[in-house]
Each structure stands twice: as structure tokens, then as C-alpha cells.
Amino acid sequence: MAEMFGFEINRKGKELPELPSFVPNTDEDGVGVINSGGHFGQYVDIDGDTAKNEVDLIYKYRDVASHPECDAAVEDIINEAIVGDNKSAPIEIVMDEMEASDKIKKLMKEEFENIISLLKFNSYSHDIFRKWYIDGRLPYHIIIDNKNPKKGIQELRYIDPTKLRKIKEIEEETDPRTGARIIKKSEEYFLFQDTKMQGDDKGLKIHPDSIAYCTSGMLDPSRKRILSFLHKAIKPVNQLRMMEDSLVIYRISRAPERRIFYIDVGNLPKGKAEEYLKNIMGQYRNKLVYDAKTGDIKDDRKHMSMLEDFFLPRREGGRGTEISTLPGGENLGQIDDIIYFQKKLYKSLNVPANRLEQESGFNLGRSTEISRDEVKFKKFLDRLRKRFSDLFLQLLKTQLMLKGIITKEDWLKWKEDIYFDFIEDNYFSELKEAEITRERFEMVAQMDEYVGKYVSNEWIRKNILRQTDDEIAEIQKQIAAEKASGDIEDDDDLDI
Fold first, then answer.
1. Are 61 and 204 contained in the same domain?
2. DSSP string, 46-67
3. Domain hosting residue 283, numbered range
């Protein structure tokens, strides 16, 4: 296999040999599998969309996101998931459960802050999350100083996902005993094509260590294509667009009153009568045309109008030239079908349908008054954040291993104990925490007479207030300091 562009993190010791199998080991990132010396092709036909490859699918997602209702729902999701301003980071690393020295934890926290700075995440967190959410993937090129890799990551450059594809190239051999095709060797890399991905293996091969690649984790039924969170919204958006366009056309065509012109042509012969009628039509016809792409109304005499009046010839002996009026359509103000498809769009994106009514605010009552949809929405946001955190894990791993702070074995041991805490702005979360705290202290007040008789202060702290040993020690220290300073009265009842 040809040498690839980019750096490779050298591992100490020998890698474990790949055990023989007839199927490749694929990750949950839509990796395309090709035979050595072959090529890969792509075709996606899911839910009737016309996307023939992943590039077309990404463009489809971006087009769907541009729809006003869909954009409003996406903004709701992003604003709830990523909270912060330019001054403070919307995310922090948590290593409380990681069994490592304080020095290692301090270094890891510093390197995480460096990564946040390289991403410019404090300023562009909204845009970064939006790209990942809409496209379903977020690739970054990791740039280092090849002469001195221990300096760590020097720059992170965003890559348009329409130009990048992850590939697994395998070499097979035939088992002489069973005749099965056994994988002899496999190698993963990224294929970069500056033009539109053509579906072949021509392009720049990049080593996986040089790319940070965070995906949505959603795959098509074949488990070979990455899908965006917007995939379920393709059909509702198309339906909503069609209904809105047809509604506008219906309103324009049925709202106005139409006229019926009875033109007296006397005893003119047929040819002369038709010519006379056309001249009259040319004078009175309305030439308004509706453009479904822009929503504009044009005056175009080359097209038949939707507001066409009726011109009927009348021979001599009739009542002569006459103009009558047809009434306009009724019930033109009903948009129940439009509202239905708008709610269907919001449901496809897991956004509560009541958020569609922008003019209606929410009521900060008790948590029992929170709708089930809001609870589901909160859990959905938590899943999004956890999936998006994979980007920081990849970058942190690369940074720590480049600088020699940890080894690969250390990372495999500790990575499950590393969490990322996002700033919460969901009112349900705040309301829930406040109510839980209030309920706990009300229970403590009710159990005051039983302290020293049936239960102890420590039992109440651990089982009612849910305080850990470290929290109890820290609170006791704070109470003692406040008593010494005179901020609170020295009362033994405060020891609870």
C-alpha cells in the first residue's frame, strides 16, 4: 500500500496481530470497504430521496436546513445544546472518576483548554455544532510540526465533508483448506478529492492520525453510509414545501373574483369573429404568473394566467355584450393541513411541537407540569452532546500522545472515565434541580425530631441530602469558617 500524507503516532511495542476473519472490522462511522487495487462506489436510495452518493446526500441536508421552519427547529436544538458566550467556554472536562495523579489531570486539563483555543470554540461553538448536526460529520485536519512533533497540535483546519471519505482497504487470500476468502491485511485511511467525490480511489490518501472525524453515529440500514440528524426531516420538508406552494397558488387563483365577458360578434364570419374576440381578450386579460421558486408574482404575457377571465362569443339576437362576475373561493383562511405538516417536521427532529408557536411562552411551574415532550427533548440533547464530545476525545488523545504525556495503554484505561460537562440552559433541568433540592430540605425539616433517636445526622446527609463524604467534609469546613467569621450564628442545630 502506498505511503499516505500526514503524520502517524508511533506506538511503543508491537501491535497485536489481526486475527484471521472473512469480514473486515468496521467502525460505526460509515467506512467504505474496498479490495486492494480496486475502487469504491456509492449509491444511496433511502426513503425515496434522489441522492446517489454521500455528497448529494450532504447537499440535500443543507438544502433541507435552509427551509425556514426546519431552520427554526435546528436553531432551537443548537441553542439548547450549546450554551455560552465569547468569554467563557460552553464545555468543561471532568476527570473526577479517573484514577490518575493530580499532575496528569492538570496537564490534561491544560491541553484540553489548548484544543478549545485551537478550535476557537468559545467564539464559534454555535457554527461548529451546526455544521456537525446538519452534515452528520465534522472533519478537521490536524497540523503538527513534523520536525518537532512533541510541540503538539499547531493548527486545526476544517475540511468540507463533501471532499473527504473514510476508506478501509483490505487484502484477501484464499484459505486452502476451506476455500474461504480470509482478510490478510487491512488499512484505514482518508481519501481527499478537491473536486466533487467521483466514487473512485483517485485522490490524496491521508493517514487517520492526521484527521479528527466526528460523525452523528447514525447509519443507513446497510451500515455503510453516515446519515445526518436531518435525514428524517427530508420527506416532511418536501411535503411542507409542496403544500405551501399549492396553498399560495390556490389562494391566488381562487381568492379573486373572475369575470365572464359575453362578446357580441354580430353576424361576423367564424374567422373574423375569432380575431375580434382575441383582440378583446388582449385588452382585458390579466397576465399575472406565480413563480414557485421565488414566491414572486410576475406580469408575463407569454404564459397563461391563473387569473384567467372567461371570454365567450355571443351571436346577433342575444342580449348583446355583457360582463358578469363569478364569486371567489370560500374558506380560504383554513391552514390546518399546513400546521399538520409543520408539527410533523418538528416531530421528525425530536423538537416539542409546542415550540412551533413562537408567540406562546412557557410556564415555569412545577416539574410535574412539564410536558413529556420536553423531557424527551432534554434526553435527546444529552445524547447529542455525548456524541459530539467524541471530537474532543479524538483531539485530546492525539495531543496527549504527541506530547508524550500519556501512552496508548493509558488512554485505553482512562478514556471511559473522561466526561465533558456542557453548560445547561434547558429550563426543565434547572426546574428539576431546584424542586429536588427543595423537596430534600423539606424532608430534612420533617425528620428533625427523629435525629438522635432513629437516625443520625450523617445518615440524613448521605441518604436524604445525597451528599458524598468529600462534600460533607467540605461543607463542615465552610460552616466552621463562617462561624469563626461571624457570618452565621454558632448554633448546634446547624450541624445537620
1. yes
2. -TT----SHHHHHHHHHHHHTS
3. 259-325
